[in-house]
Each structure stands twice: as C-alpha cells, then as structure tokens.
Design goal:
Low-confidence stretches: none
Number of helices: 20
Number of strands: 23
Oligomer: single chain
Mean pLDDT: 90
Helix content: 25-40%
CATH class of one domain: Alpha Beta
Length: 553
C-alpha cells in the first residue's frame, strides 16, 4: 500500500528543526520526502497543522506475554508507540516457555496478577528465541517488539535458584545460552540486579557475559539494585567502558518518600561514567504511585505465605481457597502479617520501606465518601489503631471500614515525586519508560495510568520545562532506537521503515489518572506501523502490522 502524507510539519527525530514536506510511504518504507510530491497513492493523508514524526519507541517494557493476550496493543498505539521491548529485568521468554514461567513465578510483582497462569494457557509453545518470535508473528501483533534475553531466566535454566555460585559446567552453560540467544537475534542481555537469581551473580560473571554481548554488538539493559543505586551505575559504567558496549538503565527513579536527595547523586554518577567513556543511558517512569486492586494485593500476600523460593509454607495457606477461608482467624492473620513483613523486602532492595510506609497508601473506588481518598494513616488515627495492622486488615477484608464486596484500589507512593520525575526526564540521555508489567491491561487487576499516559506525560514534562518539540521527539524516537540498536527506525529518512506518528503538539497529553486510568492519549491523529495504518482520526482500527524484530548479524 502506498500512502502519501501531505502538508505536515516534519520532525525527523534527530532534533533538527522541523520543516514542511510531503512523504511517500511504499512497501513498508519511506520512499520519498519533498515538498509538493505529485504522485499516485492508495491513501492520501492531509497532515495540515500537524506534526509528522517517527513512530515512538519505548525502551523498557514487559510485553512478553501481552503480545498474546492483548495483541492489538491499543494502549501503546494510542500514545503513538510503534515499537516496544520484551525480555527486560532479567525475565525473558528465552531460553524456553517453561523456564520463563517457572522463573516469573518467583517474582511476586508478576504473580501479583497471576501472570504465569495466563501465559500457560497460550496455545503456543517454544524452546528458543527463534520459535518464540515465530509464535508472536504467527499470532500477529499491533506494534514491533524488540527482544532481549534475560540473565535471570538463563541462570534459572541451568539450575541456579538461590545465593549459590555456579559450577564450572553451569558457568559454561550460562555463557553458551547467552551466545545462542544473541546469535538467534536478541538485541542484548537484560539484568535484574534486585531479582533472584540474577541478584546473586557477581560482577565477574556479568563482565564475562558482557564480553559475549560485545562480540554480537548488543547492549546491556540493567535493572539496578534499588532503581537509583550509585554503586551499580559506576560498575555498569566500567563494563561499558571496558567492552565499548551500550548500557541502558531502566526506571532510574528514586523510590520512597525519603529518596529525593538521591536523584542528583545518581545522575552525577551517570555523568561521571559518561565522562570517563561509558556509553550509558537511562529511562524514567512518569507516574509516582503504584496502584493495585485490593484483591490483587491479597493474592500477593498469599504468594508470600506459600512459596518454595521464600521457604514459607503457612499451615492453612496450602492453596488460595484455603488462604481465603482462614483469614478471619486472628492467629492466622498474625502469621500472614509476619510472613509478608519478612518476605516482602526479599523481593528487591527497594521494597525495604514498603511495609513501614504502608500508612501512606490511600484508597480509591471505595464507594464510601468517609473512606475515599483517605490514607491508611488517616483512617487508623480516626479508629485509634496501628496503621500497619489496618493495612493488613483492609487487604485481608477484615476491616469494618469496607464491606467484603468492595475491592478498593490501593495507591502507594513509590517514586520520588513529580518534580524529580520531570527533572530526570529532562536529562539529555533520558527517555520515557512505559514499563507495563504483566497483565495490567486488565482493569480488574492494576489500574495504573502509566499504561495509557506515559509518553504524553513525558512529553509534557519536557515541553513544560521549555524543551522544544524537536528535542522531545528525539528523546521518544531516535534516541531509544539508537540505544536499542535499531538502525532503520526512529527517524524520518528515505529507506527507513514506515513507522510514523502524526500528532498535534499542542494537544498531545494524557487525562488518565488513578480513578480513570484507561483513557487514550489526546492529540494523536494517525499511527502507521510498517506502512499500514493502525490508528486513523484518533481511533485504533485493529490492524496488527507489527513484527518481532530480530537483530541481523
């Protein structure tokens, strides 16, 4: 299909000033760029008054399973995103489906939304990255997907579970699997330095794997220990400098209410590493709070009470049905509270303050004005009870504040405030971070506005600080495309892939919030993926023209 885009302001993704031009798309590529193109086309789009940009590229995401159970990818397309990631944070569908599911089942952030159970139902199996990519492409998907291979899943495959050093044979297996995944087309290796079993690897192991990544011209994508760890940034910078490979650090937001001061320290460490010769970048989440439905949090509590990895098996929590039957018992509730309090910090270093900060969680969708928008601290003070005890009572449906047929949303302050998010976003090497984990596309699980609102909020965080449209587009297109190693996307130029977003810079924004999170971005008029129109007149049309992109070597 030939598509002619007329009369648009072209922002080409490089940061250069915009210019008027027409663009002809043919056979999935940009064929011609010029004023007054007089050519025949199957479809003519009048972009008068609008900005024509490369399709937006999301550098950090977890769409590994979403590509099967939400393949239209409408939350991405409505923001203008045409390419996103899978295999991040050391979790990846490679080496095979069963290993991936076993590994993800140890991560309560994933188990929180019963992810493994959903994925296990897919009518697709695979035992290599090649087969996974084929399954995605056969199923069809709405946007392009860029795969990484996960260090944690590879370690799991060779039998490493806890804080144990690999045997010589296991070490050789880890290196062989890393090499195989890169050879099959992965764009790099992802680390999860706060997640088991990746968190137990020393930097000697990571350095050896980085040497293999360098052979295949890939990159390292490292979830660091507490989202803003200065020591990890320095060590990863040294690896980048030594092997001359790109290192990307996702979600470099300061977690917790007490971490505002740490952002300048982390950015200073990053700048120092770059000045020494480290090719290092980062992305930034845009919403400062996490939000889960209460029943999802309750399922998470059950997970922490009955899990082989955490070596916790409470009597009465043999299965979720038994767990629910026993939560009215005071002694059982006390055992649950103890298990959750002990095991939650083991999920990752940045969760250490979560339980002690539980009083700052506020409730939404309660149906009761006396409770709505109140923090647990406020509700506990009014009742004269301990806020942590009240938090557990609410999650376990033991509190008389809410009827048992109400499942409120729990909104937890997590990141270091809106001002810090805006400051981090305006760094020259910063990119937006959608970071949609698991099945938060299901409104009954986790109503997070980041799913629909991340890119427009990032854009506004730049524009409101005086950044130009051209620079904002660069940070959403060519910058992440270059970091991911996509040589034919992220720019408007002859021969580049025809991934295009046409939007109104004055109107591009989000109205999504924690009360109404599933609101499409405003101001996006047309989205084209691989030369096919996936959104027109602001409405997605269900076209699934994306591809699993494998790196050609």
């Amino acid at each position: 299909m030939d598509i002619l885009i007329k009369n648009g302001r072209i922002v080409d993704g490089t940061g250069n000033p915009w210019f008027y031009s027409d663009i002809l798309l043919s056979d999935g590529k940009i064929k011609s760029i010029g004023r007054g193109l007089a050519v025949a086309a199957d479809k003519v789009i009048n972009a008068e008054g609008l900005t024509v940009a490369p399709g937006f590229v999301n550098p950090h995401d977890h769409v590994d399973g979403i590509v099967f159970f939400r393949p239209d990818m409408q939350p991405w397309i409505t923001q203008g995103i045409t390419t996103s990631m899978c295999g991040n944070c050391s979790f990846s569908p490679y080496p095979d489906k069963d290993t991936w599911l076993e590994h993800t089942a140890t991560n309560p952030e994933v188990e929180l939304v019963t992810y493994s159970e959903k994925v296990r139902e897919f009518p697709h199996d695979w035992s290599s990255l090649t087969e996974y990519a084929a399954a995605v492409n056969k199923n069809t998907v709405g946007i392009n997907v860029v795969p990484l291979i996960g260090h944690g899943t590879i370690r799991w495959k060779v039998g490493l579970r806890r804080d144990e050093a690999p045997s010589k044979a296991q070490y050789e297996q880890i290196k062989a699997l890393t090499r195989e995944g890169l050879r099959q087309g992965a764009f790099g290796l992802s680390l999860g330095l706060s997640y088991p079993p990746c968190r137990f690897a020393d930097y000697d192991e990571i350095s050896e794997l980085a040497a293999i990544v360098a052979e295949y011209e890939g990159g390292i994508y490292a979830h660091i220990s507490d989202l803003i760890d200065e020591d990890d940034i320095c060590k990863l910078g040294a690896i980048s400098e030594k092997f001359r490979i790109p290192v990307h650090i996702p979600h470099i937001n300061p977690p917790g209410k007490s971490r505002f001061k740490d952002l300048p320290i982390a950015l200073g460490a990053l700048e120092a590493a770059r000045n020494r010769g480290a090719d290092i970048s980062f992305d930034v989440m845009q919403f400062s709070d996490w939000c889960f439905r209460n029943d999802a949090m309750r399922h998470f509590f059950y997970f922490l009470c009955n899990n082989d990895y955490y070596e916790t098996h409470l009597e009465g929590a043999e299965d979720y049905e038994s767990f629910l039957k026993n939560i009215d018992d005071d002694d059982f509730k006390g055992e649950v509270q103890q298990a959750v309090t002990e095991n939650f910090p083991k999920v990752g270093d940045f969760y250490e303050e979560y339980i002690t900060d539980a009083g700052h969680i506020w409730l939404i969708n309660t149906g009761d004005d006396k409770v709505e928008d109140k923090t647990i601290n406020e509700l506990a003070a009014a009742k004269g009870v301990d806020p942590i005890d009240l938090f557990f009572d609410i999650v376990l449906q033991r509190s008389d504040l809410l009827s048992k047929d109400v499942e409120p949303g729990l909104v937890a302050p997590f990141l270091g405030g809106e001002d810090n998010i805006a400051k981090a976003s305006n760094h020259p090497m910063a990119m937006p971070c959608l970071d949609i984990p698991t099945d938060v596309t299901d409104p009954s699980v986790a109503p997070w506005p980041q799913m629909y609102g991340t890119f427009p909020k990032f854009y506004r965080n730049l524009i409101n600080y005086g950044t130009s449209v051209e620079e904002a587009v660069r940070k959403m297109t060519s910058l992440p495309a270059n970091r991911l190693g996509l040589s034919d996307r992220g720019r408007i130029g002859i021969g580049y892939k025809a991934d295009i977003t046409i939007f109104d810079p004055a109107e591009y924004r989000t109205e999504a919030d924690y009360y109404d999170p599933f609101v499409a971005a405003k101001g996006v008029h047309v989205v084209i993926v691989n030369g096919e129109i996936a959104l027109e007149d602001g409405q997605p049309n269900g076209v699934r023209a994306g591809k699993m992109l494998l790196k050609q070597r």
